[in-house]
Design brief:
This protein is an alpha/beta fold. The protein has eight helices and eleven strands. Strands 2-1-3-4-5 form a five-stranded parallel β-sheet, with helices on both faces. Strands 6-7-8-9 form a four-stranded antiparallel β-sheet, covered by helices on one side. The chain has a two-stranded antiparallel ribbon with strand order 10-11. α6 packs across α8.
Length: 226
């Protein structure tokens, strides 16, 4: 397994490389975001770890640029403690997960292996999901409403699929968190609300008929107008 690591703290970068090398990963460290964008090619790595505050291009900018050419490789962001804006911006630009500094290497390893495991599990792919004028092409990772394509981040797309595959049944925040992250983190409960708002702005905002609904105290559901 190959890991790309963006971390400008030389000591921390070396420690991360040493740790993952001991777990039989092949690590490629970078200290400048711009250098990654000059060299990155899809399928070069199995997973990507990006610190946000680095020289050249910051981690969020790097994440956004990678997602323009690579939708599938998992990305974990390393964020400063308490910087909620960084976390939300990371998700908006295509990150799969984040970890707050300082962190334990064992937790980082658990998140890496969780994302890799989910990547490797074959998924049952439906050719097309249609809910009223919403069309989801799962295999192509594309979404249309009233014939107009809607650009979603990988995380938003996964959330939309969770709701769509529930066939109108209410889905709890806990269920969504476990499906999106594969493990329980209490802060994800609030993060789900943020993601639902992201999705509503893209799916429902420009349309009089709303498809994403809330059942207060229970969760969310996706359903055509009754």
């Amino acid at each position: 397994m190959k890991i790309l690591i963006l971390e400008d703290d030389f000591t921390l970068s070396k420690e991360i490389v040493t740790f993952f090398t001991s777990k039989f990963f092949e690590c490629t460290p970078f200290y400048d975001g711009l250098m990654i964008l000059k060299k990155y090619k899809p399928n070069d790595y199995d997973i990507i770890i990006l610190d946000i505050n680095v020289p050249g291009k910051n981690g969020i900018e790097v994440c956004k640029s990678i997602r323009e050419i690579d939708k599938k490789t998992p990305i974990i962001m390393l964020t400063a403690f308490g910087e909620i804006e960084d976390k939300l911006s990371s998700f908006e630009n295509g990150a799969d997960d984040y970890l707050v500094k300082p962190f334990h290497f064992d937790e980082l390893f658990a998140r890496v292996t969780s994302l890799l495991r989910r990547k490797e599990i074959p998924q049952q792919i439906q050719e097309k999901i249609i809910i009223q004028d919403l069309e989801i092409l799962e295999h192509e990772m594309k979404v249309f409403r009233s014939g107009e394509e809607i650009k979603l981040t990988p995380k938003e797309f996964k959330l939309l699929l969770i709701l769509a595959n529930a066939n109108g049944i209410v889905v709890s925040k806990q269920f969504i968190a476990e499906k999106l992250w594969d493990y329980h983190i209490e802060t994800n409960q609030n993060t789900i609300e943020v993601y639902i708002n992201f999705l509503r702005k893209k799916i429902d905002k420009e349309h009089s008929v709303k498809l994403i609904h809330t059942k207060i105290g229970y969760g969310y559901y996706l359903k055509e107008a009754e």
